[in-house]
Amino acid sequence: MDDEVLNQPPPLTDFNLFATDRALRECVAREGAGWACAQLGEYGRIAGSAEAIEWGVLANEHPPVLQTHDRYGHRRDEVEFHPAWHQLMRLAVENGIHNLPWANPRPGAHVARAALAMLASQNEAGHVCPISMTYSAAPVLRRDDAIAAEWLPRLRSTRYDPSFRPAPRKEGVLIGMAMTEKQGGSDLRSNTTRAEPLGDRQYLLHGHKWFCSAPMCDAFLTLAQAPGGLSCFLLPRWTPDEKCNAFHLQRLKPKLGNRSNASSEVEFHGAWARLIGEEGRGVATILEMVHHTRLDCMIASAGLMRRALVEAVHHARHRHAFGRALIDRPLMRNVLADLALESEAATLLAMRVARAFDEDDRPFARLAVAAGKYWLTRRATAHVAEALECLGGNGYVEESMMPRLYREAPVNAVWEGSGNVIALDVLRAIAKEPEALQRLLSEIRLAHDPRIEKVAAGIHADGPEMARRLAERLALALQASLLVRFSPPAIADAFCASRIEGDWGRAFGTLPAAADIGSVLAACGSV
Ligand SMILES: Cc1cc2nc3c(=O)[nH]c(=O)nc-3n(C[C@H](O)[C@H](O)[C@H](O)COP(=O)(O)OP(=O)(O)OC[C@H]3O[C@@H](n4cnc5c(N)ncnc54)[C@H](O)[C@@H]3O)c2cc1C
User: Fold this and answer.
1) Is there a contact between 290 and 417 (Cβ–Cβ < 8 Å)?
2) Ligand 1, closest atom to CA 179?
3) Ligand 1 mean position to 411 CA, how many Å?
4) What is the structure's pLDDT at 527?
5) Cα torsion for 14, 19, 21, 26, to the nearest 10°?
6) Is 206 helix (H, G, I), strand (E, B) or coil?
């Protein structure tokens, strides 16, 4: 019978993303956010529901649409989103993923938020962009008393208000960032946007930004050249007299992935903005925001890897080939176990670094974020590609979600410091704060493991041409140390044998014969 469907897995819906993730649950408890387990369990349930999965599908099938003008020719500069986008945003904002540590500054708040963000990224990563930028903007807003007094109470709201109105009349706000210009995104000092002083720390901005994501945010941390040099500004969508600011949307980028999220090109035609920090200190000021968004690149990458793993394991459990379930095929087991190691190592690293934000452990966080951002964003792209293949042809078809994960993965490497730039930042961090390297090495050595000790002894800063190797080693050594201390021995041993001792091929699925693959798969805790 042609209509009979045989040997296809059931849809993977209505499962709890948090309850089924042993590694994440252990991290949350260990890194100080055990108090958030009930919220995480509830969020994980909703994010894994058929309904929320469908929001992700719809928000990507119906990407945002730019409306530059109304029908009479007046400027509108608005972006319209599918209702599913608003559902995703509402869920994230109501759970405080955009503000938790600032609204509820208790120990473990950054870890709790990181875990929520990791769950959100697993369902639909695009909407996490404005959520992440808003979280990351708060430390910069705090640097100016007047701006902090006005904007932080708005940012602490957990009401999602997508209306296009002046911020004082809204129930909640979101903040974006606008740094990258046509001539350069890494080399921000090449910014040409001009800031014309009006007095009293107010300016008019003239110029453009080549990338400005989530342009329906209520304000943007923006770089522009003031008389005293490159400076950081807060540019709201509306002026204090409630006029639409001269922030003109030119185009939305047609992107590889991240399609639910609008990323725009924008021009400033005398846009009103307020200085934050000192003139000439723009990069130093905005870097505090970038430091937090880099953490989120790690978290999102860990989320993408976890989701890809879960989808691959689910398929392999239900699909049979040559008379047996794929998950019982020795070579498929090697592939899945290898993917599981990578996913667990990413989760442990991201959550450990999030704790450094709770503890205000600056030297550790500065270096670990750079090395971790470099490494997890690279691994995610390769990981998702391999997981996709576990689903065979189904993995190449949109409905499987794998193409969306695959298209999303590289963006975390590109933005917030592309690979080379972030690897060079590892060197910069060590040069500026030599104790950061010592701090990271002492943490790595807490494993008291000769395999890891050997790697740690070989870690030192060389020239820029070796920066990627340094970043990779730091991240791998820290991952191995965390796994040895906190994960099941089968996982730690297989990770060390393959990633540290080199008993591994150049693709996933090449774990050594001695690896306890059965225990690794049993421990990955997927649905
Ligand atoms: C989907 C998306 C959304 C974005 N949203 C925003 C946003 O909201 N706000 C915003 O400001 N920006 C945003 N960006 C821009 C992003 O931050 C930049 O693309 C990124 O910083 C790289 O800048 P660039 O594109 O100008 O590349 P370039 O700076 O030209 O870099 C090109 C390559 O050269 C490498 N490179 C640069 N310098 C060196 C060096 N010294 N040595 C060795 N290699 C080097 C880089 O690593 C990169 O691989 C977004 C980008 C994307 C893709």
Assistant:
1) yes
2) 11
3) 10
4) 64
5) 170
6) strand
Reduce the DSSP state of residue 517 to 3 states and report it: helix
SS3 assignment, position 525 = coil
What pTM was computed for the model? 0.98
Average pLDDT over residues 401-410: 98
12 alpha carbon – ligand 1 mean position (Å):
35
pLDDT tens readout for residues 20-54: 999 999 999 999 999 999 999 999 999 999 999 99
Predicted pLDDT of residue 526: 63
Q: How confident is the model at residue 2 (pLDDT cuts 50, 70, 90)?
A: confident
Give residue 44's pLDDT: 98
Please name which of 292, 366, 267 lies closest in space to residue 141, comparing C-alpha atoms.
292
Q: Which residues contact 362 (CB under 8 A, 6 or more apart)?
A: none
* Both structure tokens of 427: 């060197």
What is the whole-number distance in angstroms between the Cα of residue 415 and the centre of ligand 1?
Answer: 6
299 alpha carbon – ligand 1 mean position (Å) = 19
pLDDT band for position 3 (cuts 50, 70, 90) = confident
Q: Which of 507, 479, 478, 502 is nearest to 491 (CA)?
A: 479
If you take atom 26 of ligand 1, which residue's CA is the nearest one?
185
Dihedrals φ, ψ of 504, to 5°? -160, 155
Helix (H) or strand (E) holding 352: helix 330-358
Predicted local distance difference test score (pLDDT) of residue 525 = 74
Atom of ligand 1 nearest to the CA of 133: 8
**For the segment 222-280, what is each residue's pLDDT rounded down to a tens digit?**
999 999 999 999 999 999 999 999 999 999 999 999 999 999 999 999 999 999 999 99
Q: Determine the residue of 211, 232, 249, 259 to mutate for testing ligand 1's pocket, defined as the one with the most ligand atoms within 8 A of the Cβ atom.
A: 211
Q: Rounded CA gap, 20 and 293, in Å?
A: 27
Instruction: Assess whether pLDDT exceeds 90 at residue 175.
Output: yes
How high is the pLDDT of residue 1?
Answer: 58
Q: For 361, list phi and psi in degrees, rounded to 5.
A: -85, 80
Q: Distance between CA 120 and CA 88 in Å, rounded?
A: 9
- Six-digit token pair at 98? 């955009």
CA distance 68 to 250: 7
Average pLDDT of the chain, as a whole number: 97
Residues with CB under 6 A from ligand 1: 176-180, 184-187, 211-213, 255, 258, 263, 411, 414-415, 418-421
Closest alpha carbon to 313 in 119, 523, 32: 523
pLDDT of the residue at 158: 98
Using the mean position of ligand 1's atoms as its centre, give its distance from the Cα of residue 240 in Å.
32
DSSP 238: B
Ligand 1: nearest atom to the Cα of 417: 21
Of ligand 1's listed atoms, the one at least distance from the Cα of 181 is 26
